[in-house]
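Notes taken during the Thursday session

The instructor put the following on the board and asked us to keep it in front of us for the whole hour. The protein is VOC family protein. We were told not to look anything up and to reason only from what is written here. First, the residues (123 in total):
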Amino acid sequence: MTDQLASVRYLVDDVQAAVDFYTVHFGFTVRTDAVPAFADVVRGPLRLLLSGPASSGARATPEHSRVAGRNRIHLVVDDLDAEITRLRAAGIDFASDLVSGPGGQQILVTDPAGNLVELFQPA
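Then, after some discussion, the predicted structure tokens were revealed:
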């Protein structure tokens, strides 16, 4: 089963903006492009399903559950300081300050729809 991908669905307001965000800033590649309804992007074993308002995934979601939540994808980076500098220069919004703990350092950014992305550098 090594060829299987782990899939996560994010509901987004603008599929193209989400595709651009993940491909330009985090090295994802487009797997399926049905913009404006849906696209999926891949990075390693992670398949991120980007479902716009017209997609079946978004239509099946109860109205009270359509807002971005506290769940997030977790991307491991080699040099968090360099990533922060690069993303700030690109105008990316941060949702937290840098947090350090026994396992490493992390910071949260938001995609264009407000979904969280955790950038993590192990200790």
